[in-house]
Amino acid sequence: MNASSDRGNRGVVAVVGATGRQGTAVVRHLLQDGWHVRALTRNPSSAAALELHAQDAGVQRADTEDMRSLLSAFDGAYGVFNAQNPMTSSTDAEIRQGHNVAEAAARAGVKHVVYGAAGVGDYETGVGSWDSKLVVAQRFRELGLPLTVLRPMAFMELMTDKSYYPQLSTWHIMPKLMGPERPVGWLCLDDLGAIAARAFADPGKWVGKTLSLASDIQSMEQCRTLWEERTGRRPRAFPMPVSLFERFVGTDLTTMWRWLRNHQFDMSTQATREILPGALSVREWMSGFDKAGFDRLNHR
Fold it and tell me: Residue 299 in 3-state DSSP?
């Protein structure tokens, strides 16, 4: 989509991790809403980066380990969307890279940072990939950057996107450790992108806020039932010992699911509905797949 003619006087938003799942959704919605987008990636020649370029995003090389590249990427930008993925490196690297983004944004005079974080509150839980995001957010605040923190709960794509984690994690190990009847807050990636764009569009309302985001509350067993209603069969699950899963991906996810089994926290959909009234429920999101689509997702 070429949206350049609709951009009016809106400024530039630099999107860190633009070819990732969150970043791709954020780029798409920013472009639709008339922003100029710098899609930042370590590999501008990748298929994902070329697809963003085709959508009229300005693709630029940047590495969150390289301060000089970040300063260049943020030069003249009104806003920055920030997200790091500790699953591809480590929580220590996530914190270091997040601090680099904060330092570069402050030096560049960025007016609004929207941070795609995670977690359940402003307190440590012992879950590394949640606690690390508290440290990164605090650095943005220490540097005086106008900040909106988005704290999505579980992404609906965990149920279908094989590249997230092996599907056995969502349909087998997650409910085994967390409990199949334990309520889970869900949000789809496209709605996360729409919420980020709306936060940039109304800084007076959203700067200084931390938004816990869920558009629907469903247990894994309820999700299985919705899946079966849509496809006529239960989702496939490949049983695997927890110890073997941890050998492949580490202990962060299993620590998270055990924590969720034993702790309660606010799981309201109010903030999500306030900023995006049309955010999808799990049933509505599943209705976007025809049966053939589910077959491809379940067998690939």
Answer: helix
